[in-house]
């Protein structure tokens, strides 16, 4: 066992022991973060619980480099539990009132419900995507409460419950705070993008999903080459899973184009700056495409690669996935056989930006709950659930 793994294992054991030493009263509300990217979906809720209710929380993390381990928020106790045997044991023996997480597939693999305590499990979406196509068949079946980003998710989950005879879950009309945060960033920095447009040079961000049929795996270098030859500033923003599992692919792209002054590579997707500085996004089936369109009110060019469907029984749910229905409302679809036409498509879009702005706003209004004001309701609902569990 390499030194780093031994060190992380021992740290996880210490985290497990420290967490289990807490009184039950100190484990009323627990958050679980599978990586450092999950925190963006929890931060406002944790802050709201403490600022409005003085409610302290526990935060379990599987990231050894999680900055919260050394700099926790007020009202938060943080424990590292790793991602191996210790984590599996922590979940199986968990004594807590409410557990909030963004990891689906509870009970389907190694992450199980507690075998010794009646824990209430709450799922919080980390993307505004369909529930029956983007995720595995039973991804949400074992949660008690699900915070939904829009009505389409409620419709899909209820249809799934009916189709398979499942127990009805508590579905809360939540919203999507990451979108609200990006909108706030865009509004603060809108002048940067306008200056770039006025100077006649557009910035294109390439932000795909991950997997064998995603942009970077299939045609990433060709797209970047086309954009750079057309004179666009080009930002490549890989999905974190691509960075983690295929670093050689990212390195190959960076090696080929890094000397071009118009090329840049963004690895840290927590930084929204590249979103509000760009004028158009090129994506495939990534959830970030909707975040970009809805927050920046700018169009997306979708490369029409095969859609990754993680549920072979998705067709049993009679709802078109939003990532399919939204495409022509917020941008254009381009065949992977017509990548040379991308500059012409981008310029054509910018001849009629008002049309896309109107369509994007209408789609956003239809698709997202409580835009601009979701946090208070989310905090109240979590406190309501926690209070119910105590009574």
From TrEMBL:
Annotated coiled-coil segments of the chain: none
Superkingdom: Bacteria
GO MF entries: CDP-glycerol glycerophosphotransferase activity
GO cellular component, one term: membrane
The protein's name: CDP-glycerol--glycerophosphate glycerophosphotransferase
Organism: Oceanicoccus sagamiensis
């Amino acid at each position: 066992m390499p030194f780093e793994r031994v060190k992380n294992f021992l740290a996880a054991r210490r985290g497990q022991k420290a967490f289990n030493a807490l009184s039950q009263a100190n484990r009323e509300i627990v958050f679980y973060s599978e990586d450092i990217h999950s925190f963006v979906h929890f931060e406002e809720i944790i802050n709201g619980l403490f600022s409005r209710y003085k409610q302290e929380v526990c935060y379990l993390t599987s990231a050894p480099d999680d900055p919260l381990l050394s700099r926790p928020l007020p009202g938060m106790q943080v424990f590292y539990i790793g991602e191996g045997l210790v984590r599996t044991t922590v979940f199986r023996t968990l004594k807590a009132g409410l557990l909030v997480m963004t990891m689906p597939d509870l009970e389907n693999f190694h992450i199980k419900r507690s075998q010794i305590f009646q824990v209430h499990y709450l799922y919080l979406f980390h993307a505004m995507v369909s529930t029956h196509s983007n995720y595995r068949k039973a991804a949400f079946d074992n949660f008690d409460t699900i915070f939904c980003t829009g009505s389409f998710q409620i419709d899909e989950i209820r249809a799934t419950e009916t189709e398979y005879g499942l127990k009805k879950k508590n579905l809360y009309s939540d919203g999507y705070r990451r979108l609200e945060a990006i909108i706030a960033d865009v509004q603060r920095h809108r002048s940067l993008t306008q200056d770039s447009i006025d100077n006649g040079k557009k910035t294109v961000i390439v932000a795909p999903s991950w997997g064998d049929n995603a942009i970077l795996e299939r045609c990433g270098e060709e797209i970047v080459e086309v954009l750079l030859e057309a004179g666009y500033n080009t930002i490549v923003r890989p999905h974190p899973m691509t960075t983690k599992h295929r670093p050689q692919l990212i390195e190959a792209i960076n090696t080929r184009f890094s000397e071009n002054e118009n090329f840049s590579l963004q690895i840290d997707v927590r930084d929204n700056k590249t979103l509000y500085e760009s004028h158009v996004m090129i994506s495939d089936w990534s959830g970030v495409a909707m975040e970009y369109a809805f927050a920046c009110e700018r169009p997306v060019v979708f490369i029409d690669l095969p859609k990754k469907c993680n549920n072979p029984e998705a067709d049993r749910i009679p709802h078109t996935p939003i990532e399919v229905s939204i495409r022509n409302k917020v941008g254009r679809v381009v065949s992977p056989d017509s990548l040379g036409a991308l500059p012409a498509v981008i310029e054509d879009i910018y001849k009629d930006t008002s049309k896309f702005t109107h369509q994007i706003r209408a789609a956003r209004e239809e698709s997202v709950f409580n835009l601009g004001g979701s946090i208070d309701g989310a905090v109240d609902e979590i406190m309501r659930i926690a209070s119910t569990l105590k009574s």
